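Q: I'm writing up a methods section and want to include an example of the input and output format. Could you take the sequence below and give the corresponding predicted structure tokens, formatted cleanly so I can copy it straight into the document?
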Amino acid sequence: MILSACTYEPDSAWVCQQARNACMELQDLELPISAIIHDRDSKFTSDFDAVFRGEGATVVLTPYRSPQAKAYATDCSSFGRLSTIPSPALAPAAC
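A: Here is the clean output for your methods example:
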């Protein structure tokens, strides 16, 4: 799980830039990207998907109206935040 910057009003251009930043970070770490799972929010445009497809990743969209699928993703992100952030003072910055 890669944590990136936060903003109060993300738009599709900002989200695409975060995708490019994540890809560069993973390349620096020599970690392959196999799959990206995201919901159907309008910020995740085809440009966002193209960034990861260009790295060879499979893009998977969560099903429509699937609260249980979202619950699993939330559990995963909560676990990632707790396991990768050593200081409670940094936790709010990991949104």
